[in-house]
Amino acid sequence: AQRVTQPEKLLSVFKGAPVELKCNYSYSGSPELFWYVQYSRQRLQLLLRHISRESIKGFTADLNKGETSFHLKKPFAQEEDSAMYYCALAARPMLTFGGGTRLMVKP
Amino acid sequence: KAGVTQTPRYLIKTRGQQVTLSCSPISGHRSVSWYQQTPGQGLQFLFEYFSETQRNKGNFPGRFSGRQFSNSRSEMNVSTLELGDSALYLCASSLAGGGQTGNTIYFGEGSWLTVV
What we know:
The structure holds 2 protein chains of 2 kinds.
Chain A: E1 3-5, E2 10-14, E3 19-21, E4 24-26, E5 32-38, E6 45-49, E7 60-61, E8 72-74, E9 83-91, E10 94-97, E11 101-106
Parallel strand pairs in A: 2-11
Antiparallel strand pairs in A: 1-4, 3-8, 5-6, 5-9, 7-8, 9-10, 9-11
Chain B: E1 5-7, E2 10-13, E3 19-24, E4 31-38, E5 42-50, E6 53-57, E7 64-68, E8 74-78, E9 87-94, E10 106-107, E11 111-115
Parallel strand pairs in B: 2-11
Antiparallel strand pairs in B: 1-3, 3-8, 4-5, 4-9, 5-6, 7-8, 9-10, 9-11
């Protein structure tokens, strides 16, 4: 069965510092991975997915199949990045989510 | 285009009662999935409907059920409510369904259920 692990429940950084939110997965097939973000009092929304290899709001994530990881990175954190971040693995029949990491960016 | 709409947004029920939550997917989306979000368990898959048929079901008791109508709108029902059912219930819609390669899933704002 597939599994997604986000080892940090809370990550606190200062504005302008680099950020890395960790995500590890286990899945026997070819994975498709996503990062979702949930700002305070807002809906869960897609941030980025590995097949697009895009950068959204300065965030990037690279799929490392050897290490089974899909860490989310941003070189310079902003206060508006404070939110809950969920890593998710798409494998039939559903998205499997990690436990989430709360990112707090302090001024 | 309009996003995924869930109603009601907030509700309080008493143990033993039943509740029905509604979800209107994005126009053209035929897949609707439901997730339960709690602080302790995180986001857990309940079930998925596609073209009025339940395609997949998560590991929840039979008290949790759902259905989908011909216009793709979906409802989920929880009978004999327990305190532990207090959670945010999220509906998600997509073209092809969860887990499909290249398929993007869009979430509603959720229905906050409190059982007292």
